[in-house]
Known about the structure:
A: alpha/beta, Rossmann fold, 33% helix, globular, disordered N terminus, B: Methylamine Dehydrogenase, Chain H, 2 domains, four-stranded antiparallel sheet, 28 strands, 13% helix, binds S-adenosylmethionine
Amino acid sequence: xxxxxxxxxxxxSTGLPRKRFYRARxxxxxxxxxxxxxxxxxxxxxxxxxxxxxxxxxxxIDGAKKIQFADVGCGFGGLLIxxxxxxxxxxxxxxxxxxxxxxYVKERILALRVGNPGQYQNISVVRxxxxxxxxxxxxxxxxxxxFFLFPDxxxxxxxxxxxxxxxxxxxxxxxxxxxGGIIYTITDVEELGEWMKACLESHPLxxxxxxxxxxxxxxxxxxxxxxxxxxxxxxxxxxxxxxxxRRVMPSL
Amino acid sequence: xxxxxMEEGETNKDIEVAPALIAVHPAQESVxxxxxxxxxxxxxxxxxxxxLVDDSCGPSHKDSIRAIxxxxxxxxxxxxxxxxLVKIWSTESWRCICTVSSEKRxxxxxxxxxxxxxxxxxxxxxxxxxxxxxxxxxxxxxSKKAAPMLSHYCSIITSLEFSPDGRFVVSADRDFKIRVTVxxxxxxxxxxxxxxxxxxxxxxxxxxxxxxxxxxxxxxxVSGSGDSTVRLWDxxxxxxxxxxxVESKAGLLESxxxxxxxxxxxxxxxxxxxxxxxxxxxxxxxxxxxxxxDLSARTLSIAKVVSIKGEAFIPTSLSTSSSGLLWMVAGVSxxxxxxxxxxxxxxxxxxxxxxxxxSPEHEQTVLGDNEIPGGDKLLEKLQGSLSVDExxxxxxxxxxxxxxxxxxxxxQYSAEKRDLRKRTRNDxxxxx
Lengths: 252, 432
Ligand SMILES: C[S@@+](CC[C@H](N)C(=O)[O-])C[C@H]1O[C@@H](n2cnc3c(N)ncnc32)[C@H](O)[C@@H]1O
């Protein structure tokens, strides 16, 4: 896949995949059953497929580095690409439900690796339904950051259970995040912003970052600028609503 | 889309078929069988059939019962199912002391060990909790509202079980997953702390039970699955300790004569109280497989196969009490083209007394109908009639098999079929 001889889906001028060949349906139903392969458990996630330069063989090495950042519903992958160089030592993965979008991100990362030898080896993407299969990818406390940027709003009340942030799903995110780990959410839909904040605020295992903490966190600045959706909102001068919370110990 | 979980109102006749269920009082004072919407209880202690007292006029349940269960102390009994009702009964008066309405069909129930909470799982993977702390014996409870407690996102929960020490509640689903969640002091506020996930099954998980003894009071979890294995787990870490391929190890593959790989799902299992034996029901087996669990080595092994000769009896549900008997039922609701609308056959195996539980060599015997506690009267009540037409058993077993696979096995669609489904999606039609 690395050599892209006259591949019409790759732009000749930039060497990057052209988005129009990867256009997909705007929304997928996260409730439907999947037909893509799911690892039975986190130890079956093959790191050598995702990070071949860092993991030349698929044999598991004890104490080897694990994925620490997850960008859930990563879309076209802009955030991963910004984070890759900001945290070059950290392994990260994007999780995306739409197969064409996932393919696009894969090609994009491969092209960046070719164009920038030695770089972008720490990011990858997987096609999955994060709402069903998060525990199949990450062990307890494995993650230090989770991102939910501009998730689908699912306005209708009866579709609220499709929202990627909910009290019950936060239980699972709290399981995957180590104590001190941070969950970043942002949206341009006010109602959804309030919903996400309310879910996090009332959850016993999450606590809001203080204003000072938000100001010094370099990642917070990326929330509005790094992703395709964020850039679109910024271009249109739209307002955004963010909620950034830390995983805390349960109080006794 | 590919396969949207069963929405309300969807009627698939194959799915409507429900296997018969059995539950024995922990001290064997009574036995309950559920077939279709019918709940049948026999008072072994008093030697008579029980008439249930339910102030809601009409039948207690209006659709297939999917879960029945006694509380650990035997004072309470819970029944629930497709009619979206959870009924809590006092086993002293057999009066329904409380009916809780669920928004969706109910697939599993559990009672906390202290008898203070009833939990039930709905078809969308949400587990709800009701508190019973104002229950004082025979007085009917005020109507109760359930609070959401935890959720398996849009999966069908097949089994709910409290750990022997009551610290955790364990839930299993059709997506191969077993979740262990801390059961807090105030469960009505929700259960937010996940202790572990037990991941390793490669098909739906059908049943859960704990093996524990006085030496190992925390015990270990065992689970049965559509992948035809029984697995042993350490729930505090979620580690898989052992896997037992029941069917092939028990030599059942040869015995089916066709030599084909059949991989029959494990449909139910139950552990012998204060013992290390596990009774396992398999979809194709006329009888049960007994596994023995070595708690210090943390291993599972096949102790023996107890076959049931003379009739085509494939148990759909198993239950034990401290009395040393294993109770089994085979049956199904709504079998079409059959005179018995709700078919059930009850059989009992003896030889599980505490002393013998550790030595599987001890003779387990399938009791004759006249040797069963309660005798004919019990069978007449629980089966509906004394003799059950033999021919319908295999049809029943077949119907249960189809229903289970429709409900729990993931559908594999070919690329073309998937495409067709996408093109005929309802939400797309509007645009055309
Ligand atoms: C509006 S886009 C935002 C994409 C990206 N985060 C951004 O800011 O540009 C939401 C994305 O989430 C994906 N998504 C929705 N539900 C998902 C799920 N359950 N698992 C994984 N991805 C999901 C959608 O396919 C879509 O690409």
